[in-house]
Automatic annotation (TrEMBL):
<feature type="domain" description="TRAPPC10/Trs130 N-terminal">
    <location>
        <begin position="21"/>
        <end position="321"/>
    </location>
</feature>
<feature type="domain" description="TRAPPC10/Trs130 C-terminal">
    <location>
        <begin position="1016"/>
        <end position="1164"/>
    </location>
</feature>
<dbReference type="InterPro" id="IPR045126">
    <property type="entry name" value="TRAPPC10/Trs130"/>
</dbReference>
<keyword id="KW-0813">Transport</keyword>
<keyword id="KW-0333">Golgi apparatus</keyword>
<dbReference type="GO" id="GO:0006891">
    <property type="term" value="P:intra-Golgi vesicle-mediated transport"/>
</dbReference>
<dbReference type="GO" id="GO:0005829">
    <property type="term" value="C:cytosol"/>
</dbReference>
<dbReference type="InterPro" id="IPR022233">
    <property type="entry name" value="TRAPPC10/Trs130_C"/>
</dbReference>
<dbReference type="GO" id="GO:1990071">
    <property type="term" value="C:TRAPPII protein complex"/>
</dbReference>
<dbReference type="GO" id="GO:0034498">
    <property type="term" value="P:early endosome to Golgi transport"/>
</dbReference>
<dbReference type="Pfam" id="PF12584">
    <property type="entry name" value="TRAPPC10"/>
</dbReference>
<protein>
    <recommendedName>
        <fullName>Trafficking protein particle complex subunit 10</fullName>
    </recommendedName>
</protein>
<dbReference type="Pfam" id="PF23036">
    <property type="entry name" value="TRAPPC10_1st"/>
</dbReference>
<dbReference type="InterPro" id="IPR056913">
    <property type="entry name" value="TRAPPC10/Trs130_N"/>
</dbReference>
Amino acid sequence: MANLTQDVITTYAAPQTFLSSDQWKQIQAALLSQLPLRNIHWKSLSRPSLRTIQELRVKLLPLDSARDEHASQIPLTILERPLLNIYMVICEDNDTYKNVVRKQIKDWHSAVSQRKNQEWMIMYVDRPDTKAATPGFFQKAVLDKIRADFNLDKRDRCVQLSWSTGCDNPSAWADVMTKMKDGLLSAFDSAIAQREEDVKRLEAQRQMPGWNFCTFFILKAGIESLACSFEGVNLCEDALLQYEELEASFFQVLREKNLSWFGTLISPGAKDDSLPLLSSDKKSYRDLILANTISIFDFRVYLLARQCSLLGRMAKVVQVARKSAAFLNTFGRRLLEVQEKLPPFFLESWTYSSALSVVEECDKWASNTQLDEPTLKLHQAGKGELVELARHQLDILGVRLGHLPPRPPFSSVSPTVTPDTATFPKDNISNPELTLALNGAEVFYDLYVRITNRAIDLFKRAGRRKFALRLHGSLAALDVHRGRLSTALQTYKSLPAHYAPHQWSSLLSFMLSQAIDIHSHLANPTDREWITILLAFLQTYVDGLGSDMLIPEDDKDAYVSGLVLSLKTAAETLDADFPHDDHHAISLILSSHDAALAETKDGSYLEIDVRNHLSCPIPADQISVVLAGRDAEKLRYTADVKSFIAGNNRVKLFCAMSSQGTYAWDSTEIRISRLVLQWRRHPSSANKSNETHQELPFIVHIPKDYAAFDVQLAQPYCTELWTAEKALVTVFSGRNHITTTTVKLSSPSGTHFQCREAFLSEEDGRSLELGDDSITLMNIEPETTISFLVPHASSSGHSLHVYVDAEYLTASEPSTVRSLRLSRTVTTSLPVSVNVQDFFRGTRLFSKFTISSTSHQFVRIRSTRLEVREPGADDLQISDCSSARQGVTTVTPTQPANVLFQLNSPMGQARESLTFTITYRMLRDEVEALISAVVNNIVPRSTTSPGNREVIINRLLEGLEKNGSWVELYIATGELNIPPIEELDDDLKSMLLKVKEALSSNRPEITEGWRDLKIPLDVPRVDIIAAAKIRILSSPFSTEESPSHRLPALYAGQPISAVMTVTTSFHWGSNSEAKKRSYRMRFDVEEMIKVWLVSGRKRGDFIATDGATYEVPLTLIALNHGELSLPKVAITPLPVADGSAMGSTAVPTTETYQVHGAEKVLILPRGGRSTFVLDMGSPMSYSR
């Protein structure tokens, strides 16, 4: 009964003479060639959806050989009886039909119409070869007669077949096939509806006396059931639905405990423990059901076999494996309750054999179809679970027979009672493979390994890696039991790395404890590998809280304590530090976000809570916390310890570095001899992309220790632009008596500091020990500041980022080397920019300097000087042309300062180098120095510590930075108005009030902090200075210039006589020989067509010599009246015709200034009078 697909019986009938003819044989062969029927669509009224029968096999039988009364009274399916009856008619005229054929059809129709749930069809065979003798009219009339005589229910059951010899064309049989499908579906539908009605009626009688579940089963889903009928026509889903409903009915009966129609729970036969589980014909299940003697065991097995057979036909092998595994587990637990009534080891042998037989059956079904990748993995996983179930039975058998030890991982599924292995009956198990395995330990081990490896392979193919890893642990345990310790140790060491991602704490701890015990049993050295295993075990012990650990020791605390002591001993034997990251046995948390200053020495304290999650103390030597700041700055806090007791431990750590600012908790280390346990707060960049939630950094604030050692960097107080750039390094000893300190400077931009060329900014008898990359100072008293300058390569950009690494020893702690890493920024750009404009006037040069701020800050300028760097024989005279100034000039981003100097060179060309010096300081530095001076006067050193003075100064500066309303008042009057400052204690608040009063009344004059910026300059050189002038003559005949007040009145439109003169000078040329040369030059009078008309030689060339004057007469006519400016004259040099004049063909440099540039001429309007006489009522008269 593995496959109940049946042929649907269809009968045929015809006159005997036709059935014995060759023509019938041909028609029969052609009809069989059109079978089986395909794509039959069944729509039942009792089912919501359309069913499609992909293929339906039809069996043609003569009517006489398929008599209905020969059918069984309890039919297997409704397909045992014919569903369609066909009568074939061959008639050529109406008379023959009327006299002979009609009676034959009536007799046949009377016989088949009496049969229930059967359909009939009349097939009229039309022979084209007879149409020539017999008209087609009569052929049609015979078919019409048949339809009129027998289609009484308005349903056409007659079909015509146009037959010719050898006709197997599907189109010729299309109508016949359609009628056959309709007839078969109609009969099938009525039979199914009748059977379902019978089942409903019987099910409704469940509570009535005499109702029998086995009879209900036979009618519902047994040998002649609806399910078998559906399966016979390839409607497997409908068949499976019947079995599911039947199974639900059985469970209902089981819950009602009304099992009187069944035999015992189980009556094991001779080979019941090894027969294939999914075979439905291994027993006469039908006879047992009819006799009401079938056991529940056999009934459940038969029901499962039928369901899995249907699932297998539908290629649902995944469901077959799952359903079988669930059945073996659930019904196996039911049989376990009556195990004492079963033969020894029957349950284990039945489960083992059934699981493996299901795997083989699934492989057969899967080989007939193509499974996609996801389904194939599920299929392999289902088989793996079945093979693992079979392996569990070997665990039970092995423990009971003494082949396996009664401990994990074998004892977790073993019974609590172990029978005597000597009395084991060897004939109760019919599985030959198990029989051989149970009679010999080595054979059993081989079978155990083979079955386990088979399950591992299936799980690997299914992608269930963790299931495979769990089974590897069982093989390792088997190796331990068999004495193969080296192999077991390798397995136990390799498995934890695979278990850890799945968080199997119990199994992981078991594997690790086994590895530790085997390692100890083999007397292997406690090296790094052993320490790694031990640390992994302690971590799983903590993660599992010690309760779910599958370790054999009863006193787990003592076991763990011994391991921790062994860890300390093993760490002492290491030859180098052994780091280990993120161990869970210890958790750490800083107790505060603020570090505490040591106050009596440089450094700060930090407290940390160390929680030991083990039940025993953890020995340790040192604990350290690393804080990370900006620019890779790291601070290390350390403390020496002996051990950490179980629970919470608070430790106070110290850092000797005097850094200040905001830091992030970076890492923590606990040193156990050579073993270094590390915890990093921030994951690496490779792991950050995999974390959906990152832990926020733990911020630690370290206050500034104003009395600690410090190093500051700034620009030097005197900047000479013609020398190398320098950085001013200021070392402050603070509270410390520094015996020696070494300062190193570096920059991430690659700027090189020339430490060997460093020098003190002020000579005070000290000396510097200079190295290639370091500067060392000796014997610095407390509260002492030392400054020195360090040249460095030119840097591009506004500022220079510098790392300062300083190490120093103090007299109070000569053995403690303190290090300090600071990040400083030195402004390399100048705070001001200077633009110069030069104006040549004969032997004098006027230079205008415009000083602008290059940033948003205000610059205070005390003085400016222009000096000859090295005075020479030329005796260049420099004078400041600016008006006498009082106080200091402030340069803002929007308001530059202008300075004018006059240079006079009466002796000839000046070749000296000049220096322009600006004495300045930033407004912020000036205010800070002012506040510091006032605070030092109000708060003397004897009454408070330097730290408090610095706090007051910083709070005042913070208040000024937040509110800039004081700036304008301070620049205008010098009065400093401090904004309100909050959050101060009483002592500081009283001091602050005194400082504010002093700043608003009498403030000291600050002379420190001024910086000099020295800019090198060269005296400009111009080959030709041309002075152009246009002068008005009093008359056309005048030759001398008249003063403007003696000129006659000038009117618009009046011709005005003028003379243009050009005076050239070579005084500011490149050398003294230039005065002897001559140049060809060109003049051009400016065109002012809206103001002046110029008559005369407006453009021309002339020869220029030193001190010569060239004149050109002009006539000017003013076009407008008013004060008018005279036209300007452009003077340009011409290239030298040959190379003798200049020594080259270059055009000489020339500067032209207009002597009359500031003069204006008063032009009057033309004089005259006009009289208008108006006479009302008479024509207007006009006289002039």
